[in-house]
C-alpha cells in the first residue's frame, strides 16, 4: 500500500496535468524543447495564458527551462510524465473511437 505522502504527490501531479492546455504543452514538448513563440505557433492561446501554464508545469517539476539570450526554452524534465500522458491518451483514444 502506498504511503499518504506518495498518494499526495500523485494527486498533486494529476492536478497539474488535469488541464487540457497543459497536456497540449507536454505533447508538443515530447518532440523536443521549444520556446514560447514556437509553442504558440502550435497551440492557439494567448501568450499570458501559455506562460501561466508553463510556469505551473515548471513549478511542479514536469518541465525544465534554459535561457538563450532573450528566449527561454522549455523541455520535459520528468520522462515519467511523458509515459503517463501517452498511456492515458492512448486509453482515452481507444475508448473515444470505440464509443
From TrEMBL:
Any coiled-coil regions, as ranges: none
GO molecular function, one term: DNA binding
One Pfam family in the UniProt entry: HTH_5
Domain HTH arsR-type: from-to ranges: 2-96
Keywords from the UniProt entry: Arsenical resistance, DNA-binding, Transcription, Transcription regulation
Keyword check for DNA-binding: yes
Record's protein name: DNA-binding transcriptional ArsR family regulator
Annotated organism of origin: Ottowia thiooxydans
Amino acid at each position: 500500500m502506498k504511503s499518504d505522502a506518495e498518494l499526495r504527490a500523485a494527486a498533486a501531479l494529476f492536478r497539474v496535468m488535469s488541464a487540457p492546455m497543459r497536456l497540449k504543452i507536454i505533447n508538443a514538448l515530447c518532440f523536443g524543447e521549444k520556446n514560447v513563440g514556437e509553442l504558440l505557433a502550435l497551440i492557439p492561446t494567448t501568450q499570458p495564458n501559455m506562460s501561466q501554464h508553463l510556469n505551473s508545469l515548471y513549478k511542479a517539476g514536469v518541465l525544465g527551462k534554459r535561457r538563450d539570450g532573450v528566449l527561454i526554452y522549455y523541455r520535459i524534465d520528468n520522462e515519467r510524465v511523458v509515459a503517463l500522458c501517452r498511456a492515458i491518451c492512448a486509453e482515452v483514444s481507444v475508448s473515444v473511437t470505440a464509443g
